[in-house]
Amino acid sequence: MSQFLELLANGVSLGCIDALIALGFVIVFKAARVVNFAYGSLLLLGAYIVGRYHDSLGFGGAVLLSIAVTATIAALIGVVLLRKVRLADPGTLAILTLGVDIVLATDLTRRIGTDLLTTGDPWGANVIPLGGGVHIPQTRVAAAAVAVVLVVAFLSALKFTDWGVALRAAAERPATAALMGVRLGRIAAGAWLLAGALAATAGVFVTAFPSPGISGTVGQIALGAAVPAAVLGGLDSTTGALVGGLAVGLTATFAAGYQDQLAFLGRGFGSVAPYVVMLLVLLVRPWGLFGGREVTRV
Amino acid sequence: MSKHFLWGVPLTALALAAPLELDGFWLQTGLFAMAAAIGAIGLTMLVGTAGQLSLGHAFFVAVGAYGYAFLAGEGLPQPLAAVGAVALAGAAGALFSPIAGRLRGIYLGLASLGLVFLGQHILHNATAVTGGFNGRDVAPFKLLGFSFTATDPEFAVLNVPFGALERLWYLGLALLALSYWYARNVLAGRPGRALSGVRDSEVAAAVMGVDVRRYKAAAFTVSSAYAGLAGVLLALVFGRIVPDSFGFLMSIDFLAMIIIGGLGSIAGGVAGAILVTVLPLALSHYSDALVFLAQPGESGVGAAEAARLLYGAAVIAVLLFAPGGLAGFLKPPSKEPLHEPTNTGLGHGTVPGPDRL
Q1: Separation between Cα atoms, residue B262 and residue B40, nearest integer Å
Q2: Nearest-CB residue to B316 (from A86, A96, A267)
Q3: What is the DSSP letter of B140?
Q4: Which residues of A141-162 are buried (b: 16+ CB within 10 A; e: fewer)?
Q5: What span, in angstroms and rounded, lies between the C-alpha atoms of B243 and A91?
Q6: Residue at B222 is within a domain
Q7: What are the tens digits of pLDDT across the range B25-54?
Q8: Which of A266, B81, B97, B255 has an alpha carbon 20 to 30 Å from A70's alpha carbon atom?
Q9: What is the pLDDT of residues B77-126, one digit of tens each?
């Protein structure tokens, strides 16, 4: 039972991180209709900047710098690169972001090289006892708290601010929204900025304890959480991203925690379990749990 | 026909004579390029012609490679094992088609991404079949008593001893030519037109009498079989296959090939495959002579990284400035007016037409 509770606590906190990651992935799709494969590299960029500069700037300063730089670069990708091909279909845009991902990931991996970069966060490797022999790392508690604050702030902004209303309108009916004076380019740029900021924030928590540190594979791991979470929740649904993120975090944690009982599925099943869940969900609901059904007109 | 003749004859002659001149490194690089080209032809049919984005190509390549290694290792005659491996890869594609047939465009791409990671997991864990992390050896190919190794029978052409690579070179050429010919015929005929119809508008295609779901499943199956054949050739060239060769990066490489070559163009896919395969290998082979590259252990841009940066940038540049890819440069400008100049034909408008801005 105590193992179950420990896994539950860890799963929920990991799920919060995954939900943050998925949110950044989904918001760009919602606002700009782009599946952003460069998202993993953006997250790696965020983590890399924190890892490089936390000595000179302090942890807080490095995180702020990282958020600013990552958000700017994300917006540059969105506005400069993708604007030119805004007419193109989602597949072409997705491959374009893959090209960006190749370039960014290659260069960041080269820069990291064999260095052992850590986030230098103030929580270190401390754990909080929850009673009954159940422990949870402090970083995870911090991650969950930050995630909840950010998600609540984001959802209220989406619901109540002019920007949020405009974004939802643009996602629903771009042409009508444009006729009503919504500037689609700005909405999309805003979404990219936000995605970059979320990526940087999530990057800190993904690479903090209990993860071994910042390495080139972080980007792939992050994309590996974002894709199943976003797809099983429904690509254009923010609720779906949150639910999907939690589901992915819980699935991965439980599959890893009970791997002795799941030995027949092979070692390291935890890392692919989210994909299995995703494929099963897609069989039943091809548009995800909360996604809008595609309407086709000729 | 005359244009094909003009290009085809010298190219074929060059390819046939190559083993007499090239050293081992270039033969092996060429063979990797041929394997990649076969896989790229399959993917460009799926992505370019049928408009189904797939990031799972590496998974089917792995099925072909491991399928051959397993079947040949179990004592099946090698040609049968090769055919079996291709059929296995096709069957894997067909198995995926309940998902592939229902999903469209970008959802399919994301779902097929899951296949790659699932495949990696299986390759690492199904030790009895795949050899796990350390991989497994691949039995050399043998056809009607003629072995594709350095011996049995030993012979030389024009004083060039014919070892495994020289012999495999011709096998690779034959397989590539067969793949090229088959793909051309499929695309030139009824199925090709049906697939383009599915790409451009599923509803319109269905109204015209195209069984959309069946064609999508068939496109996925054929493309997977192509990937399987690429896997068989790759396994033969490697001699020993390990799971790490068939990861997400390979899927991206395949997409880069067909984008750089020009989506939907078979010849373009081959050209893109050659470029993407040869570039990193050649850069690292000649890194001593290339002053702008860092040597191993130095800081700076190394050969493998330079190649990845180059073709990542090439993918971006092609999509931004030359959506037709390499094939677009060779073709005379189209007489039809282009409605959407930047539309490379992938996917479909998920958002209803009038709302697309």
Answers
A1: 11
A2: A96
A3: P
A4: bbbbebbeebbeebeeebeeee
A5: 28
A6: yes
A7: 888 888 899 999 999 999 988 887 777 788
A8: B255
A9: 878 888 888 898 888 888 887 777 677 667 788 888 888 888 888 888 87
CA distance B175 to B64: 14
- Shortest Cα distance, chain A CAs vs residue B68, angstroms: 23
Neighbours of B59 (CB within 10 A): 32
Closest CB to A91: pick one of B109, B301, B313. Answer: B109
The helix/strand/coil state of B146 is strand
Please check whether residue A235 is in contact with residue A291, taking contact to mean a CB–CB distance below 8 angstroms: yes
CB contact under 8 A, A95 and B315: yes
State how many domains chain B has. Answer: 1
Do A7 and A244 meet the contact criterion of CB atoms below 8 Å apart? Answer: no
Could B356 and A220 be called an inter-chain contact, meaning their C-beta atoms sit closer than 8 Å?
no
Rounded to the nearest angstrom, the minimum Cα separation between A196 and chain B is 20
Q: Helices in A161-213 by DSSP H: which ranges?
A: 162-172, 174-179, 184-207
Among A89, A227, A297, select the one facing B113 at the smallest CB separation. Answer: A227
Evaluate if residue B336 carries a pLDDT over 50: no
The partner residues of A129 in beta bridges, in order of sequence, read A135
pLDDT in tens, A159-198: 899 888 998 888 888 888 889 888 888 888 889 999 999 9
With tokens 């969950």, the residue in question is A144
Structure tokens at B35: 């394997």
Question: B130 is in which domain, residue-wise?
Answer: 27-246
pLDDT (0 to 100) of residue B59: 92
- The answer as to whether B174 is a domain residue is yes
Measured CA to CA, the distance from residue A112 to residue A117 in angstroms comes to 8
**Whole-angstrom distance, CA of residue B297 vs CA of residue B247:** 25
Contact A97, A77 (CB under 8 A): yes
* Residue B122 belongs to a domain: yes
